[in-house]
Amino acid sequence: MSEVIPSTPQGMPVVAMEPRLRLIVSHADDNMVLAQRLGEWISNAPDLEIDIALGNIALDHLGVARALYTHAGALEGQGQREDEFAMRRTEREFLNLLLVEQPNGDFASTIVRQYLFDVYQRLLWGELATGSDDEVLAGIAAKAAKEAAYHHEFSSSWMLRLGDGTEESHARTQRAIDSLWRFTAELSEPYGEAWQRDVDVVFAEAGLRVPDDPYQRSGGREGYHTEHLGFLLAEMQWMDRAYPGMAW
Amino acid sequence: MTYDVPVAPGESADIEERIEGAEKGWPMWEVFVRARRGISHVHIGSLHAPDARSALQNARDVYTRRGEGVSVWVVPSSEISAFEPEAAAEYVEANEKVYRLATTYDIPDEVGQM
């Protein structure tokens, strides 16, 4: 982890980022990657209304990512714009949580991923909106906190509806939890009890359970990713890489 | 030529039954939005949702994303009563009685919304 070579001239080596910049880029990457994943639902969602809802949530995440990348570029002071952060860094330079890069799977899987992340982001933005001495970051956090509150309302209500719904919806939701739970240490670690409390309440009401298997994977914040991120970035970045600096 | 249609667990193998189920989908809801304080809720459209909480969320996403309203109502479409189109004449017939129409009054602009 001490030697990371930047793969593009503009890309900063991960280890060289100063902590404040790194924090901002990490959260921008969470939102960028999840926006890309949710965007994959467009035209494929179970219902027209859900299609629009997931698209709107994706756009909220994208908006947060853009604001944070722009802010990171200004702090860094080397003329990097939002597109360079999003489109010109490689997998190894992305600092997002492993959870958000996991494939959409079925609708239950998308909802479980969203809910676990929404609990995390609500706590995060609430803290940064009032506790950050970086005014720009606090401003972005205050706006993002309102959006995260709505995302949480959307995803937690779907957790209840699916978990406490039909036999099929319950089975699919529990299956999604069983497969995604190993990526939650990265989310629960910073907020410990508060994160767990929200999850416990919703799981209990929805009749869902936390898996017994204690195995956890982490490393996203250090740039060590699951195999899925590379494919996501390839699709997201190919056009900008094929036609650098293109605009339309 | 025949096709084997994949069947998900819990799903009927009868294709006709499945199509019927898919067409039925979620119930329909009518959406009413109040644009600002002091005026009435206005019907702006309809949507599908499995329950009231979800209908409100969908209404927010489909109709009020750009700050269109301060208040939203959703009502199950099945709860709305309407007269049959053939009976319209019995209910709607004011046009030839001009005294019922306030078209001859000039309303000053200052009055605003009435």
Order of helices and strands of chain B: HEEHEH
Percent range of helical residues of chain A = 55-70%
The value of Rg of chain A in angstroms is 18 Å
Uncertain segments of chain A? 6-12
Biggest sheet of chain A, in brief? Answer: none
CATH superfamily of chain A: Ferritin, core subunit, four-helix bundle
Beta fraction of chain B: 15-25%
Q: Look at the structure and give the CATH class of chain A.
A: Mainly Alpha
Unreliable spans of chain B: none
- Helix content range of chain B: 10-25%
Overall number of strands of chain B: 3
Provide the CATH architecture of chain A. Answer: Up-down Bundle
Task: Throw out a few tags for this protein.
heterodimer; A: 248 residues; mainly alpha; Ferritin; 67% helix; globular; B: 114 residues; alpha+beta; Ubiquitin-like (UB roll); 3-stranded antiparallel β-sheet; 18% strand; flat
Sequence-ordered SSE layout with sheet pairings:
The complex is a heterodimer of chains A (248) and B (114).
Chain A: H1 19-39, H2 48-76, H3 82-87, H4 98-101, H5 107-131, H6 135-163, H7 167-180, H8 185-206, H9 228-242
Helix pairs in contact in A: 1-2, 2-6, 5-6, 5-7, 5-8, 6-7, 6-8
Chain B: H1 15-24, E1 28-34, E2 42-48, H2 52-63, E3 71-76, H3 88-91
Antiparallel strand pairs in B: 1-2, 1-3
Structure at a glance:
The complex is a heterodimer of chains A (248) and B (114). Chain A has 248 residues and is an all-alpha fold. Chain A has nine helices and no strands.
Structure commentary:
The complex is a heterodimer of chains A (248) and B (114). Chain A has one domain (14-209, 223-242): Ferritin, core subunit, four-helix bundle (Ferritin, Up-down Bundle), CATH 1.20.1260. Helix content of chain A is 67%, strand content 0%. Chain A has helices spanning 19-39, 48-76, 82-87, 98-101, 107-131, 135-163, 167-180, 185-206, 228-242. In chain A, helix 5 crosses helix 7 and helix 5 (107-131) packs across helix 8 (185-206). Chain B has a single domain, classed as Ubiquitin-like (UB roll), CATH 3.10.20. Chain B has three helices and three strands. Chain B has helices at 15-24, 52-63, 88-91; strands spanning 28-34, 42-48, 71-76. In chain B, a hairpin with a 7-residue loop joins strand 1 (28-34) and strand 2. The N and C termini of chain B lie far apart (66 Å). The model of chain B has no long low-confidence stretch (mean pLDDT 78). The interface between A and B is medium-sized, with 17 and 18 residues.
